[in-house]
Amino acid sequence: MARRTRAEMEETRLLLLQTARKVFCEQGYAEASMDDLTAQVGLTRGALYHHFGDKKGLLSAVVAQIDTEMDARLQAISDTIDDPWLAFSMRCHTYLEMALEPEIQRIIMRDSRAVFSDKLTELPTHCVISMSNMIDKLIENKILIKTDSKMLALFIYGSLEATALWIANSLDGKTQLEQAKSTLDTLLNSLRISAE
């Protein structure tokens, strides 16, 4: 049997990830059969185990991929909006809106929390650092009241994460999203220095 090239191995890995995202989103992690998943793409379970170890490892890789895409979408807001306050506010709104996207709702907000419940207490430091840096700029530009930026980032990030989870698990997510964005605006505006 011929050895596979790195490019072929990476292609197989990406194919498994793409298929897993679709299957996990449509069926949920618990209902997803790894035999069915690998058969859909003409592979064996051995390929899955080689690349990801097991079903849980595959979910972890899918979550990391989606998380990276979410981060890139949020960063694109900062990169395209010149007004730092509007960019910060829009990033917060967008994070909440993502909770209604089927893939994020099912895989990130539901299944990954159930499967990786032991890791829920781990702080996503890159998110908090990114938010803290944005808050520092808002304080420097005299847009936001002077406060401990890291602590404020922890509060806002924690609120956004809990609220996104509430929206994702709600029977009427669209209504909950609108309520959440309105409340978020009230909270954020209370931190602004008035433009008098």
Q: Outline of this structure?
A:
This protein has one domain (6-190): Tetracycline Repressor, domain 2 (Orthogonal Bundle), CATH 1.10.357. Helices cover 74% and strands 0% of the residues. It has helices at 6-27, 34-40, 45-52, 55-80, 84-98, 102-115, 125-140, 149-168, 173-190.
Structural commentary:
This protein has 196 residues and is mainly alpha-helical. The chain has a single domain, classed as Tetracycline Repressor, domain 2. 74% of the residues lie in helices and 0% in strands. The chain has helices at 6-27, 34-40, 45-52, 55-80, 84-98, 102-115, 125-140, 149-168, 173-190. Helix 1 crosses helix 6 (102-115), helix 4 (55-80) packs antiparallel against helix 5 (84-98) and helix 7 packs across helix 8. The longest helix is centred in the middle third of the chain and has 26 residues, at 55-80. The N and C termini lie far apart (75 Å).
* Form type: elongated
CATH architecture: Orthogonal Bundle
| CATH homologous superfamily designation | Tetracycline Repressor, domain 2
Judged by helices, strands and strand pairing, the structural class is mainly alpha
Strand content: under 5%
Q: Helical content, roughly?
A: over 70%
End-to-end CA span: 75 Å
SS summary, helix count: 9
Radius of gyration: 20 Å
Count of individual beta strands: 0
CATH class call: Mainly Alpha
Low-confidence stretches: none
CATH topology: Tetracycline Repressor, domain 2
How many structural domains in the coordinates? Answer: 1
Q: Write the H/E string, N to C.
A: HHHHHHHHH
The biggest beta sheet reads: none
- Average pLDDT rating: 92
